[in-house]
Design brief:
Strand order of the largest sheet: 4-5-3-6
Distance between the termini: 58 Å
Mean pLDDT: 83
Largest sheet: 4 strands, antiparallel
Number of helices: 7
Helix content: 40-55%
Number of strands: 6
Order of helices and strands: EEHHHHHEHEEHE
Strand content: 15-25%
Low-confidence stretches: 218-223
Structural class: alpha+beta
């Protein structure tokens, strides 16, 4: 039994194989994404969307076939779609491109290529997650301190950071309470043996009793 389309003729097996294989491979990609995700930004709907994207792209490629006119028509139709959800992590973009590439391979009936590429790429993802490839193991903290607007207070803060940190960098300066205070943000690496309690105490002594906050657990790669 054949299904005739403007782009050519394909069998029921082609349709079933395309839908089934694109679902299986996209679901495998979603499962690996779930297993290797580390941060708190995990979204179930995003993983489900990965599976849908893989299947939809496969169907689109099956419909287009070798018909150039239809390919341009689909490009024009899809160009009106606007995605307004921000991607929270750069690796999420990689997984979107992965399911699109696999969907294209399945839709053009390169079944073996799609299966082998999926297995190999997911293996690489697992290895990178398992052995922490490319991790920069430098723990940093963010220090937020409020001081009066006089310039000497900023110098006093810098003097404390020189004594208590291996390195520090002024990230931003903001005015708060209508200009009555200046809020300083620093990215710092504490010296060995120096605790966050110590740096908070040292800064509290020179900032006229204003607020001091230290955010811990930041990696340099996330800054």
């Amino acid at each position: 039994m054949n299904l005739t389309d403007l782009s050519g003729t394909f069998s029921v097996f082609d349709v079933a194989a395309t839908l089934a294989l694109s679902f299986v491979l996209s679901a495998a990609i979603g499962w690996v994404y779930q297993r290797t995700h580390r941060n708190i930004s995990y979204s179930q709907s995003y993983v489900q969307t990965l599976v849908v994207i893989g299947m939809v792209v496969a169907v689109i490629m099956l419909v287009v076939g070798s018909n150039i006119a239809r390919a341009f028509a689909l490009v024009g139709a899809l160009s009106v779609i606007r995605f307004r959800n921000a991607i929270k992590e750069t690796r999420d973009v990689g997984f979107i491109f992965l399911v699109m590439a696999i969907g294209m391979a399945v839709g053009t009936r390169f079944y073996l290529l799609a299966a082998v590429a999926t297995a190999f790429i997911l293996l690489v993802v697992f290895l990178m997650q398992r052995f922490d490839w490319f991790k920069l193991d430098i723990q940093r903290q963010v220090v937020k301190v409020q001081v009066p607007p006089e310039a000497r207070y900023q110098q006093d803060v810098a003097d404390v950071l020189v004594r208590t940190t291996l390195e520090f960098e002024l990230v931003s300066v903001e005015t708060v309470r209508g200009g009555a205070l200046t809020e300083l943000f620093y990215s710092v690496r504490l010296k060995p043996g120096v605790t966050t309690t110590e740096i908070i105490g040292a800064l509290s002594e020179i900032n006229a009793g204003q607020k001091v906050t230290v955010l811990t657990g930041y990696d340099q790669s996330d800054m």
